[in-house]
Design goal:
about 290 residues; 7-stranded mixed sheet; disordered N terminus
Length: about 290
């Protein structure tokens, strides 16, 4: 057996040591401080498993040494960008939660027919891009069907650089086509081969991906928006921080703009400039004129 293989096996073995509660709190506090994402004790195994996987990949022998490496200047910052992708959830799909997307259609239908102002939307916590492209398909199809000469854009943000790169590539497994309505498949999807398809260039040009930490939302260079779409992101934040993030989102909206969240993300929130819209299956507000 080669020396390299022996070292690799020793590294794998050495990263199976247990993480005590004090060390878990240290790691959880680092993640919350840097991203705002909370990992409760019930998800300790999730954190430990993903830390071990990454440590094995880079040959790091212990949690303590890996923690120190993450705090070590530029090299640590590069490694952190990789790790945070492992520790944040990327569960998503095209046209996820149809009632919320139907609300987007309702909002578009309420827009003045002759409006020529750009329509700007924000997909918060976009993961690998499926949500952002779903929004773009709905907006583009509506504008084309109503004959409006109106430009639009979707800004897609996430804390994970690898997820954003995946979204920019806009290439997905062919089995994912089943998630997309038939008409939209014909208009916006191009088959590459027997395994993959790509979102059309026409639509990709309307979607921009950007790295954004939700803790920095108040400083984000976003202008006045018509629509903020945020699904299953706030559930990973403490309640008090959710209130702050929601206030910042509301302040980004133009008069008449809508904020659409995932059902159950917040129980109570009030903003003097926002009023509830939608039905019992959705959670949304409109900014007052």
């Amino acid at each position: 057996m080669s020396a390299e293989k022996v070292l690799a096996e020793q590294t794998v073995a050495s990263t199976t040591d247990a993480m005590d509660d004090k060390a878990f709190r240290q790691w959880a506090e680092l993640l919350e401080k840097r991203t705002g994402v909370v990992v409760p004790p019930a998800r300790k195994s999730f954190m430990v498993t993903n830390l071990r996987i990454r440590m094995r990949e880079i040959g790091c022998p212990s949690f303590d040494s890996y923690y120190s490496d993450l705090l070590a200047g530029a090299k640590g910052a590069v490694e952190w960008a990789t790790l945070v992708d492992r520790l944040t959830v990327h569960e998503t799909r095209f046209f996820r939660h149809q009632p919320s997307l139907d609300l987007v259609r309702q909002f578009l239908a309420s827009q003045p027919a002759q409006s020529v102002e750009p329509f700007d939307a924000w997909s918060v916590g976009c993961s690998t891009g499926e949500e952002a492209y779903s929004l773009a398909m709905i907006i583009d199809a509506h504008l084309a069907g109503s004959g409006q000469e109106r430009r639009f854009s979707v800004t897609a943000t996430d804390v994970s650089q690898p997820a954003l790169s995946f979204g920019r590539a806009a290439t997905y497994g062919l089995h994912r086509l089943a998630e997309i309505p038939t008409l939209f498949r014909q208009l916006y999807c191009e088959k590459i081969d027997d395994r993959y398809f790509r979102i059309s260039d026409k639509l990709r040009r309307r979607v921009g991906f950007a790295l954004m930490n939700m803790l920095d939302i108040a400083r984000a260079p976003l202008g006045r928006l018509n629509l903020v779409f945020c699904q299953n992101v706030l559930i990973y934040f403490p309640r008090d921080r959710r209130q702050t993030v929601l206030n910042d989102m509301a302040n980004r909206l133009r008069p008449g703009g809508w904020l659409i969240l995932g059902p159950g993300e917040v129980m109570t929130w009030e903003h003097e400039q926002m009023e509830r819209v939608g039905g019992h299956r959705t959670l949304a507000w409109r900014r007052k004129a």
